[in-house]
Write the structure tokens for this entry.
Amino acid sequence: MSSEVIGTRPLVALVEDDASIRESLPDLLLELGVAVRVFSSAEALLASDGIADMACLIADIGLPGMTGFDLMHELRVRGHDTPMIFMTGQTDAALRQRLMESEAVTTLFKPFPEKALLEAIVTALAQR
Amino acid sequence: MRAKATALRQANFSTPSRRLIAVRGDPDPDADVARSLQMLAAAIAHEVNQPLSGITTNASTCLRMLSAGVPNLDGARETARRTLRDANRALEIINRLFALFTQTTIATEPVDVNGAVVDALALSHCELDAGRVSVRCMLADHLPRVTGDPTQLQQVIHNLVKNALEAMLGIQESPRELTIITRRKSDDRIEVQVRDVGVGFRGEDAAKLFAPFYTTKLHGMGIGLSVSRSIVELHGGRLSGTPNDDGPGATFALSIPCPPR
């Protein structure tokens, strides 16, 4: 893929501590036509430059250290309104309720089909 | 040893409910067992959902790479390899759980405790590096060997190291320090201390920490400390945790019988 193509693609940031997902999801996102930046923690994303260039953010809820909720809160405090998509492998009912009530675009429950991912991204990008 | 092992097997099934009753003060044992099973099912689902997620994502990517106008064969091969790896990871989780709940015997051979510490640290090497944790080892010379299962004892120490690391991940302002000490605690006991400077816990929560399915982490099944304690007790030893009294964090100590001098 040439750099010109990446330049025109919306940039999606992925924050995930699980290695298999951190490795597999970027390839699928590239296949779906977006550019990707990958971070293994919320802290790493917050310390990075170019947050303003991120068209949308996909974050696992159960990150070590700052959670996905903490990350969203911190971004809002810093004035970033980047649309967020949460992911979780948890089945806990109380957590599901909290996720549904959050202002995230949607939550992807692992394992999720490609179609759900694509729909979430389209919805998120439309919010920009 | 066999009698003890049977006792552990029974304990594996009877202790969770007893402990949960103690923690929650719930007088209805049936409701309590149901809740334990529910928590176990949720914990297993979470553990297995991670590799499953890797499998579906890699398989989707693989199909797309093969269906492109010019198929990306190298990419497809790589994603197929990852699919297999994640399937193996899921299988390992299931096998580990199965072993955990059906364990009947332990191997008994002479174990070098310092060697177990070194091996356990080697297992966590990458995570400790990534978490920018500095490790200090103070291992006593001339410790006698203890009798037990080297893999299991190493697993217990590895669990304690992992807990220590995770307790320190939120610490940003001060250095993340892990200290491991081995020493002869008394004439007939060897002690391993794993000390962190992490979030710690309240003294009154000390008993809860070892209850099955109790966890303070978003990831994690809450079985690490409970299983670790079972393993240590099977070796005739003790495992305890105390908040540090001279600073932040906690210290977990396991002591195991050794031949007297």
